[in-house]
Amino acid sequence: SDPDLAERARAARAALGDSAFVLGHHYQRDEVIQFADVTGDSFKLAREAAARPAAEHVVFCGVHFMAESADILTAPDQKVVLPDLAAGCSMADMAAIDQVEEAWAVLSDAGVAERTVPVTYMNSSAAIKAFTGRHGGTVCTSSNAQVALRWAFDQVGGEDGDGKVLFMPDQHLGRNTAVLQLGLRPEDCVVYDPRRPGGGLAPHELEAARMVLWRGHCSVHGRFSARNVAEVRERVPGVTVLVHPECTHEVVTAADMVGSTEYIIRALDAAAPGSSWAIGTELNLVRRLARTHPELDVHYLDSTVCFCSTMNRIDLPHLVWTLESLVQGRTVNRVVVDADDAHWARVALDQMLALPG
Ligand code: 13P
Ligand code: SF4
C-alpha cells in the first residue's frame, strides 16, 4: 500500500486521540486493520462500540449493518461513521422490512405467529432488528446463535414443544445451528422465499416446521462446496477443515470444526505447531492467519473464492479521507438510525447482550 497514505492515516489518527475510536472487522484489508484500535467479529465489535462512551466519533471499518448497530448501542451524542457508505452486505440486503412484515402476516394467517419468535442475525438492517424487538425476539451473531435459539424456543414452550423460530436472513446459519447444535432434524426446517406468494409454503408446512428459515445467504461463504472439502483432504493429508457457519449445511457437515471468526482465530492460536488447516471463511482473514502463524500449515478452502467485495470497499484512501475530515471538524458518512427503529432494535440487541455466555 501507498506509504504516504499510511503516513497520513497515522498522523490523522494521532491528531484525533481519544476523540475517535476505530473498530475493525476481521474481514477488513490489512492496510485498514493496522489502524483499528480493536479488531473483532461482529459480536465483539458491537460490545466494544457500546463500551466507549468517551469517543465522539466511532469509525467503523466494516459494513453498513455493523455501523447501524454501533449507532444504536452508543450514546446519543456519539457519531458513528462508515468510511464508504456503499459498504453494504448482500446477505442483509436479501431481507427487506416490507418482505418481513409480509412474512409475519403469512405466519399469522397460518395461525402460527403467536407461537413464533423472530431471531435475526446481526447481518440485517436496523429496521429488521426493530421488527424483531417489537415481536419479542432477539438478535444473534455466529458466536451465540446456539444460545439465542435455545432462548427463543424457551419463550414458546421449549425445544420439544410446537413453538417456532423465524430465523432471518441467513438460512445456513439457522439450519446449521438448529440441526448440529440443537439436534433438530433437517426436515424440521422450512425455507421461506420472500419472492414467492406465501413464501412458497403451505399453511400445513408452516404448522409442521420448527424453524422457518429466511431464504438468504452469504455470497462469500455460500461458494464453498463439499467438493472443496474432499479435494483439500486429498491434497493435504491429515488436514483439519474449519469453516464458518454461514457455509452450507453440506460443507459444515463435511468439515471437522465450525465457528465464528473469533472461534477460528482462537482455534489457530491453540493449534499444535506443524498441524495443517484448511479454512473456509473470507480471504483477508485467512491470509492474515497464514502470515501470523508461520508454525502452522494454513490453506484456503477454495483458491478461486475471493474477498467479501463490500468489506473490501473500505480501503486506505477512504480511511484517510474519513480521518482527515474528522480532524478538520467535518463529520462525514455518518450512519444514523431513526429514533423509533433505534429504540426497538436496541430492545433486540440488549436481549442478545443479556443472553448467557
Ligand atoms: P462474524 O463476524 O460474526 O464471524 O460474521 C462473519 C460475517 O460474515 C460478518 O459479515
Ligand atoms: Fe455480508 Fe458475507 Fe460479506 Fe459478511 S462476508 S459482510 S455476510 S456478504
Automatic annotation (TrEMBL):
| Subcellular localization, as worded in the UniProt entry | Cytoplasm
Q: What class of enzyme is it?
A: transferase
Q: Is Iron-sulfur set as a keyword in this record?
A: yes
State what protein this is by name. Answer: Quinolinate synthase
Q: What is the lineage of its organism?
A: Bacteria, Bacillati, Actinomycetota, Actinomycetes, Micrococcales
Annotated GO CC locations: cytosol
Q: Which domain of life is it from?
A: Bacteria
Binding residues annotated for iminosuccinate, in chain numbering: H25, S42, Y121, M122, N123, S142, H244, P245, E246, T261
Which pathway, per its entry? Cofactor biosynthesis; NAD(+) biosynthesis; quinolinate from iminoaspartate: step 1/1
Q: Where does [4Fe-4S] cluster bind?
A: C89, C218, C308
Cofactor(s) required for function per UniProt: [4Fe-4S] cluster
